[in-house]
Amino acid sequence: MDLRLTLLLIALCSPGVTKVENESTAQPGHVHTTEAPELATAITIGPNRSSSEEEHDEDCLSVGRSQQSREAIAAAIQRLGVQLLHNLETTPEQPNVIISPLSISLALSQLALGAVNETEELLMHHLHENTLPCYHQSLHNVLAQLRNNDLQIATRIFLRQGFEPKQEFVFESRRLYDSEPAVLESLQQINNWVENATNGKMTDFLSALPPNLLLMLINAVHFKGEWKARFDPRFTSRGVFYLDNKRMVDVELMEDAKHPLSVFIDNDLEAQVKYPRFPFLKSMSLLVVMPMSGQVNVSSLSTRLNILDLYRRLPKERAVQVKVPKFKLEYVQDLKDVFTKLGLGDMFSSPNLADMADGPLLVSSVMHKSSMEINEEGAEAAAATTVVISRASHPVFHLNQPFFFALMDDKTQVPIFMGVINNPNPGAPILERGEFGSKDKVGFPIDKDDVSSFRGPPK
Asked: Domain check: are 297 and 428 in the same one?
């Protein structure tokens, strides 16, 4: 499975910058990866800080390492992700939504470092940090736990030549979020950084620089995981994915007769819902939520989910016969409208970013691009040559209709990616079919014995 996201969350501009100045910044030129000499002092020497601030930092170091703070960070990131999923609209061109609540939280948090007064309060409110002291230190500690060979997180500050941010903001961005400043020299420089940060998986991220650009905060999250038990490509075959009661698309279905799966059925969300958890190596999991009726809106369902509670209720893994669609999807979205809808409109009109730099600054764009690929790759191929597909020997789970997913870190229970997949093959022609549940459906067998076999543990 390959998930990668690059988020240009903050493009800060000033109305006072002339078009000529901006064009000179945007011209292609030789790309340097070193920081500007005039920023060397700011990024290598910490700012003078009072003893009370140092004492507060010492307190935060211990608070930020606690289990309580890790759980609070995970819950806050989940709430932000669910809130965004509920408000991001799909289109015929983009029927699916794929976001990284971790990446979005990281970018908003870095912006909050430079915000003061009402702007800071507004940002922290939407980051759901209300009950969490030492938010930045707690998030910093969670990021340190998340980084591994499969999950890579990179951040960077790009500055227009001549623009000087405040020393404290640069220092704290570097200390808490490993975000190094660099002078912005060309569009290609941005795209090269994104390409490198995503291991070459995402190219030509930007086609143009925003006008009057002063500063850009960019972060990239890249995950490439191996299934705990791989799917044998020999058993991948053509099948169908049901978009709704009457429409379906052709897909490639990966199949495994004995896939290790934690799965149960719940009736608490006004509809029977299946919750399977697909394990990866290195303590990562793909949690899937699929209604058992095609009449349920998956995006609306996500607002009633408590992922952390579901995680705790999952039973032990068991051998399950599974069918999962193989797909490769992309998602591109400017998040400015959805942030405005959620109450962050002041960020784009009159924010107070006095701790970032002197003079008026505006957030001009919130560009987000992500991609997701699910295929047979995995590290464990034991007994692959002897596996036999049998429909009767094990319970079955077919992921063959719209579903919600969350890519979870098992240790911190932070949702790295979240999304709603309504159509895993949007480029394919849509086929008409009979009523949902007719004999041509290769779906989940909803008989009494099979349903009871997936009941979750008592609450």
From this structure: yes
The predicted pLDDT at position 30 comes to 36
User: Is the distance from CB of 323 to CB of 400 less than 8 angstroms?
Assistant: yes
Amino acid 87 reads N
| Terminal CA-CA length for the chain | 32
Same domain, 177 and 281: no
Radius of gyration of the chain (CA): 23
| Alpha carbons within 13 A on the beta-carbon side of 55 | 3
Query: Has residue 356 been placed in a domain?
Result: yes
pLDDT at residue 270, rounded to an integer? 54
**175 and 45 Cβ atoms separated by less than 8 Å:** no
pLDDT of residue 68: 86
C-beta separation of 125 from 113 below 8 A: no
Say if strands 318-334 and 247-266 run parallel, antiparallel, or are unpaired: antiparallel
Phi, psi of 424 (to 5 degrees): -75, -5
CA distance 213 to 200: 26
User: What is residue 324's predicted lDDT score, i.e. its pLDDT?
Assistant: 94
Strands in 93-132 per DSSP E: 97-99
Residue with tokens 């996500």: 302
**Residue 245 and residue 140 in one domain:** no
In the chain, the number of structural domains is: 2
As given in the structure block, the two tokens for residue 123 are: 């940002």
Model confidence over 16-34: pLDDT tens digits? 543 333 433 333 333 333 2
CA distance 155 to 139: 14
Q: Which two tokens stand for residue 290?
A: 């699929």
Domain range for 180 is 2-225+330-372
Distance of alpha carbon 53 from alpha carbon 55, whole angstroms: 5
**H-only helix segments in 276-395:** 298-302, 307-313, 336-339
Closest CA to 39 of 154, 166, 140: 166
Per run of 10 residues, the mean pLDDT along the chain (length 459 residues) is 54 53 37 27 28 51 76 92 92 92 90 92 87 84 83 85 89 90 88 84 80 82 87 93 92 93 76 82 88 72 78 86 91 89 89 88 81 69 26 70 92 92 94 56 40 46
